Batch of 2 targets.
Target 1
Amino acid sequence: MQKKYLTIYDDLVDKIKAGIWPVNTLLPSENDLTNRYETSRETIRKALNLLSQNGYIQKVRGKGSIVLDAHKFSFPVSGIVSYKELTKQLNITSNTIVQELSYMETPSALQELVNIEGNVWRAVRIREIDGEKIILDKDYFSEMHVPFPTKEICEDSIYQYIEEELGLTIGFAQKEIVVEEPTKEDYELLSLEGFSNIVVIKSHVYLDDTSLFQYTESRHRPDKFRFIDFARRI
């Protein structure tokens, strides 16, 4: 016999798929669901946790459980894809806001962290989709390899500038994915009301001659993306 929380989970999934609770609306409260299914609050919480784990809802402190779009944007982890290329592949309309474009005043601290040699310039860009600011990209480049660009280049595609104008070949990247509490800057620059965590992809990116030319932190609101990879057992 199936456990009750799984039966409730299946019923909630069916209702979400049927559009009874559309995307970006709230599920009934835990108390309402407890009464509706004539069960304990703990059983309802187990069902809601399973919905959250499988990407149907996002629990937001102070609000409740928000229904998510099951068709989240798929963000490839293993590949090296520019944001412009990604939005084209996903057929989504996006706006890039250049928040900062400057030389690092004290590059030594960063160089110690990421081992970028020479002068370092920094681009901070906000990615806006459907009127919501959901990604904060903080990129650090070696001027030895990538000369300081224009704001227009940063609004369009730095990788396109590197490959087409500079004639360089981007080789590979080492990536780390962590979940962190949002910083004060995250809250100021992104649409994060009600969210208590943020997904951060930290990347060291190299040219094909193994020269490190970029360090980046791409900070994502957790409800809009799923991070995908392809793995093969050897």
Target 2
Amino acid sequence: MLSEIGYTAVKSTTAAIVLFILARIMGKKQISQLTFFDYVVGISIGSIAAALSVDPRISFAQGITGMVIWAAFPLILYYASSKSILARRLLDGNSAILIQNGKIIEKNLTRAKLTVNDLLEELRIKDVFNIADVEFALLETNGKVSVLKKTAKQTVTNADLKIQAEQQGLCANLIIDGRIMKKNLALLGKDETWLLKELKKQKVDTVRDVLLASCGANGVLHVDLKNQDPPVFSALQ
């Protein structure tokens, strides 16, 4: 029993030391701006280290060799990416535009396996509660969403001008993926007749054509239609 405990302790300590050294060699990106491949590498190395600690069938040589090989992959790929733009595009991909000038780029949203609700949640995390305020929203290669507000929304603040502003309130989503959010509509004191009339004003014939319709505190309905992606700004290489 004691010999088994001692052997496990030695293997665990060795695995932890090797893991620490490899993490330092791979750099801070492994714990900050993770790409999908970085994530897989981190899990694989951690799994090998854990198995080395407790599995008597795995020798020191096997465990450490496996960890070193997995750690070598991101270093090799980093070297290739730093020397070649083509390799960088193949390995890391490009940032994808999810919103352009207040309009959702539906095809990019689909490719990213994101729903409209996922996108709205990411915007709220960035303190954006009205999609109409967004100039660009980008899905970066590390999976994070970057948001650029429209110029009118990012200039001097009311505090800078010492102006007392009215509360903007939350933006209510009234249609998502062609479905009317009846509870949200009721909270605004509106009904479907009002909603359909507002859609008609924007030349929208049916709710099924709407990807997202939201109404701000100012009562203005912002409508984003399905399959109506604008020409995408494609200079993100």
